Amino acid sequence: MISRRVFVVSLCGGLLAAPLAADAQQTGKVPRIGVLIPGSPSVPSATQAYGAFQQGLRDLGYVEGQTLRLESRWEEGNPERIPALVAELVRLNVDVIVAGTTPTAVASKQATRTIPIVIAAISDPVGSGLVASLSRPGGNVTGMSLLVAELSGKRLEMLKEVVPRLSKVAIVANPRNPASTRLRAETEAAAQSLGIQFRVIEASVPADLDRVFPAAVKAQADALLLLQSAMFSQERARIADLALKRRLPTMSGETGYAQAGGLMNYGPNIPDSWRRSAAYVDKILRGAKPSDLPVEQPTKFELVINLKTAKALGLTIPPALLARADEVIE
Known about the structure:
Blueprint: H1 18-27, E1 32-37, H2 44-59, E2 69-74, H3 82-91, E3 96-99, H4 102-111, E4 117-122, E5 141-145, H5 152-162, E6 168-173, H6 180-193, E7 197-202, H7 209-218, E8 223-226, H8 230-234, H9 236-245, E9 250-252, E10 264-267, H10 270-285, E11 302-306, H11 307-312, H12 319-324, E12 327-329
Parallel strand pairs: 1-2, 1-3, 3-4, 4-5, 6-7, 6-8, 8-9, 9-10, 11-12
Antiparallel strand pairs: 10-11
Helix pairs in contact: 2-10, 3-4
């Protein structure tokens, strides 16, 4: 696997975590970090993201259970659980809350204005009302932005390269994601600029996916584009299987979609975003204020193409597109 990631804002500098660990041992106070994780421990995308965050802390010198304690809460694929999970972390008075999705971040901000909140992989922190701006967040929220909406045009262009006859696309959106409104608007505008007709199909829970693909076929869509959603990430293998059965070329922004059998995914690496969020936790534990820490945004994105799936769909991937891929699955 060849991975090329470059980020425009750096959290370089600062001290290693060893002095902080020594201070914690001397005072007897071990910082507690609340972590809100989408999915469950049995979902690969969720465990990969959480594992990357834990690795980021280890890279900074933290030892879980000794110099830092993690209060992990799993959403278990049920958004209705989020308010209760957030309330529990607030009652525990954790030192920092790490939120992995827009719904968990919004719920956390609504629940507390004093506990610092680090967003690990959020589509649109400004549009979701989490921060005032990327450079000056204000309030108690900062962290990592994925800037997925701006990639809609690129994803549609790539789909058109792979499916030259592409004239109509099914756009699958999760209306429960607060960032969905902007994602839809950006994608619809990109489709119109490319002369592609579109049909928006909503899916809020895994059970909704059973009707997505029949609806796309009925709408005579030539391909399907998945908008960013933790639920889609958790169901990526099932989505890839349904797309193949319906012979629908599919593009996703979710890390791991092509590895799970989907045709293509293009976007920032989400586990790496989680890993980098650990640096924000470190800075906040050292006394930095979230309002003073700019939100970091990616400038380099991963393109992964599954040639086996392309062959099964009877598609030929243009050599120029293959040359741009960070990983090709054969």
